[in-house]
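re the bet — no i am not wrong, look at it urself. input seq straight from the record:
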Amino acid sequence: MGGIIYLRSENEQGFKMERDEAVIKLLNIIYKNSELSQRELAKTVGISVGKTNYVIKALIEKGLVKTSRFLNSRNKWAYRYILTPKGIKEKARITRDFIKRKMAEYEKLLKC
């Protein structure tokens, strides 16, 4: 599998790295706390609510995240975001690739 979400062309390396970091953070946060709202997720990750919504929708389309309705503490219906088994696998793969890329960058810096 290549990248998870294609927001822009793949030759925009800086944007791809930023996107990958946002996806990794979102997947990790969803894995740890599935009852956070999109606004809370956005604040935790440090991205806009619109970008959070866009990424979550893409993750749902890819089958990495699913939603479930629940009654929150304010007696309102809210959505819970849950990683699917496929999402857990993908989270591990993306994290591994991210670490490899960062290690390669570090090695490159050491050689300079």
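see?? The first strand starts at residue 65 and ends at 71. told u. also Strands lie at 65-71, 77-83. so pay up
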